[in-house]
Amino acid sequence: MSISSNEDRNGRGQVDMSLYPPFIRQLDAKLPDYTREGDIEYPFEEITGVGDENRIRGNWSNKSDYLLAVIGFTAGVGSFWKFPFLVFQNGGAAFLVPYLVMLCLAALPMFFMEMVLGQFSSSAAISVWKVVPLFKGIGFAQVTISGFFAVFFNIISAWTLFYLINSFSFSIPWSNCQNSWSGENCTLGTRIQCREMNGTLLVNGSCIVEHATSNETTVIPLHDLDSIPSLKYFHNDVLMLSKGVDDFGTLNWYLGLCVLVCWIAVFLCLFQGVKSSGKVVYISVIFPFIILTVLLTRLLTLDGSISAVLYFLTPKWTVLKDLHVWGEAAVQAFYSVSCCSGGLFTIASYSRFHNHLYKDICLVLIVDVIVSLIGCILTFSAIGFTCFEFAIALDKFHIRDGFHLVFVFLAEALAGVPVAPLYAGLFFIMILLVVHATQMFVVETIVSSLCDEYPERLRRNRRHVLTTVCALFICLSIPFCLSSGLYWMELLTQFVLTWPLVFIAFLECMAINWIYGVDNMLDNAKWIVGHWPPCYIFWKILFKFICPLVYLSILCFLWLDWNSIEYESYQFPYWSILAAWGIASLPLLLIPIIGIWQFCIAKGSITQKWWRVLYPDDAWGPALAIHRAEKFPLQIPEARRLLLPPEVEIASSQRDLQENIQMNGGGPLTGARSSEFGHQTDGKSIRSTDVKSVGATINTIPKFERETAI
């Protein structure tokens, strides 16, 4: 790269000062314009090879590792236990209309924003808030919520592992009522029991059994789904469920061992950071798709499955007039991409700087929608088979979302399939891998965020940080293995892991789009990719005006739609609900506390303090010097020597110098600070102009140390 000028140096030409960092403008540099003639070779950073671009922090080994990691983190277990229930309850295929609209209005903007900022700064959830230091508490809140998610997903993994181990038998335990935990009212399907007793099945679902010896006729009524063996197994054997949230009961040691095994698996997968987790995703993300295809193919061949899929996917367009349906669609769309928990910041931060993220975002969202639709078809085919076995009409069948859908209903449906242990084992392997992929990057978010925020102390000891985090979460997970664990999991699901994320989304949207500036954020995206996203004006309107209103609407919907919590026939006591609200508010309290702390430690007057906490930190920007040099080449010493020949003059006026003094704290320049600007202030007045040659006094430009990573 060399300097050239198309205009005369005597002031006739306009210099593009955007190519130079702010301190050059403060020094009133008389610089000619220049044109790029090639890239500067930086011997200290090699970004064209096959190794890591960021050699201190590391990168994904290749693009496929990164894409599978994002898909594994976003396409979670909610596609199997929440989305099918919403489609079932809210008009079948018609629910896809509000869902896709809200996916574009609520999920896509936040997904885009977090991916851009994470990749641009190569920083995880806490350090990325150098962009607006006043809101650094959002990063700590996201890490805290990730801790709750880590415990939550670990318990789900432990339950799944427990089911998987017990699937390895010739007769899976929840397929019959001949067990110690079955109870007296445990019953199989009406059709199954009627067939075993050589009875006649009626249209209303009842069964008539004629006894030839006594000439008596017995009528077996339609059975309640609350008495099926899979529900008894889940409550009495897996959970050892107590009578209430305050009845802690006993510890299920088998479940505790499953918790320990799942945490050891997470530790081993993250031992080498993204290098090891990037290889694990080839199993934890690709293999579930293979299993899902096998299960879907098998279930669609069972009796009643095709008719159920067609029945439940039939659109009921009248639901589009119901605002409650739109609210449910907005909530599900927002949660479906796993935003605002810090995971997207972390995953994107390990990408190469010029990775084309526009295509990645579109691909991930399309895959997420496809997985949700496949989960619907899988669930509806299982409903059809279950209704056939229990002789229940499709319009009279009701399901529940959450744990009940996966561990009770789908487990019961697979128990009736021929070669049930095989398909049940495949199903729980799929659920285990899906949950493990999400949990793995939730823990990586916590570890990377701490190491990025305190690099001097923690980055070299990353494995110690990982060990400490896993050990801490093992201790926090064990209490959920008590008999009351399910009730506390319900409280986490209803309170802690729901509305706080939407509240964070609103604050994050306001901080980035209104304080940092939506134009700056889109410019960052252009710096990464090379061009702005299509429909630039649409993105500006969406980020600045539509998104805040959407997030406030979702938040109001969640608060106004709140009802008393119950599980089965158990009503949660009022004190437990207050405790859940308190736990949910705990991460959000960190936002004002840390914001006040950031303001207090900022230097300068009150005005300067506000300036420092509302404007990006000096360290904000690309992590690598070679990428910073693309926009601000004079920040790099090697680039300065090439760009500024000795004949270029810098005129420093007294006014500019005094402004520089005020920006750096308001005191006089003495000692080393005065020598940086080439001035002497020992009792002598500063000359109005002091013209120096850059070649003779190159130190007149403040020094910017070259870094390979911030």
From TrEMBL:
It is a multi-pass membrane protein. It comes from the Eukaryota. Na(+) binds at residues 72, 336. GO terms for molecular function: amino acid:sodium symporter activity; L-amino acid transmembrane transporter activity; metal ion binding. Disulfide bonds join 177-186. It holds the Pfam family SNF. GO terms for biological process: amino acid import across plasma membrane. The keyword Heme does not apply. Belongs to the sodium:neurotransmitter symporter (SNF) (TC 2.A.22) family. This is Transporter. It comes from Caenorhabditis nigoni. The gene is Cni-snf-6.
